[in-house]
Amino acid sequence: MAVETRIIGPELIAEAVALLKQGECVAFPTETVYGLGANALDAEAVAKIFTAKGRPADNPLIVHIYSIDQIAGLIGDCHPAAKTLMERFWPGPLSLVLPKSGRVPGIVSAGLDTVAIRMPDHDLALEILRRADLPVAAPSANLSGSPSPTRAEHVWEDLKGRIPLIVDGGPTGWGVESTVLDCTCLPFRILRPGGVTVEQLRRFAEIAIDPSVFQNGVSERPRSPGMKYRHYAPRAEVVLVLGDRVPEKINQLACSPEYAGRKLGVLAVSEHLRAYPGLTVFDLGPKQEPKTAAARLYNLLRAVDQHGLDIVFVEGFTEKEIGLTLMNRLRKAAGDRVIQS
Ligand code: TXA
Ligand code: MG
Q: What does the pLDDT average to over 233-238?
């Protein structure tokens, strides 16, 4: 059944707080992407998130908190190094997978015995969480499978008629989702790279990277169910091109019979904006700034669809620091379509 969706500014967050307390779901900004939140302790409220997003029931949610004191009721015993990471990186784009307490309904963790928790580094999000005084389960506020929303308009495009309220706090900062770190195994394991980098985490704990971060469909321990789904993808086909001769390769592909008659575009670094005559080119920012590219990526993937493109070639980045996060999202969007130049 369609509901009326309203978009409000930060001055009206009392309405968001009231809806959360009544067991409704509400979209709000965080420093990474917009989230679709509901009371994490209310299974019926959380079920509304899955319905609104069309999210598979086996994909668990991240619980958002405003104070470390809230964590006691949500988790069992955790490793001391996980506590160090909370102190060092919260509030911030780091979700820690920890042993779940019986208080958290099974729907939140999709039946797993663990729960992912994070404290967002965003004033509006923290204010909503503080005033609701609830742990809030919140996945990204997009339709399942489409790119995460970095602006309130993206949430509106995907979820209008499906949720009652969107709090508009302007564009989000990071533009990509939080790092998900499994702290229930040793060494701790990156399930999804994000704003907090592997290099930063390694100063405080031994960290492994799950192979699924680099390659689709593989995981030694299939622990982050969400990563198996097609993700971050626009309607257009994404083709990721790697190597030292990327513009030459993309121009060559664009002329090949395989792509004849298709509407083609490129997500290119600023240095290559003029390297693709005849193609629609979008600017990812300077080659040495993967952070800028990550912040622009989801907005550009949505723009690709608005331009009605069939295929978008994307230039690859070096896989370190935020470049690892960016490339992970590009690999997910591209599926198997990764070409070496
Ligand atoms: O930045 C973010 O993390 C955003 C904002 C709104 O906080 N949220 C977000 O949520 O990206 P979502 O649901 O789109 O992605 C959560 C990811 C999924 O890949 C899910 O499988 C994984 O975290 N996850 C959640 N709980 C887990 C658990 N207990 N064990 C392993 N992976 C888990
Ligand atoms: Mg998501």
A: 90
97 lines ligand 1 (CB under 6 A): yes
* CA 232 to ligand 2 centroid distance, Å: 8
Handedness of CA 188, 93, 81, 58 (dihedral sign): negative
Does residue 220 register a pLDDT over 50? Answer: no
Q: What is the dihedral of CA 171, 12, 94, 147, to 10 degrees?
A: -40
Q: Is the pTM of this model over 0.85?
A: yes
Angle of the 123-132 helix axis to the 13-21 helix axis, nearest 10? 40
Among 49, 140, 182, 220, name the best residue to mutate to test ligand 1's pocket (greatest count of ligand atoms within 8 A of Cβ): 140
pLDDT confidence of 56, banded at 50, 70, 90?
very high
Average pLDDT on 209-221 reads 75
Sorted by where each starts, the structural domains of the chain and their CATH numbers stand as: 6-214 (3.90.870.10), 237-340 (3.40.50.11030)
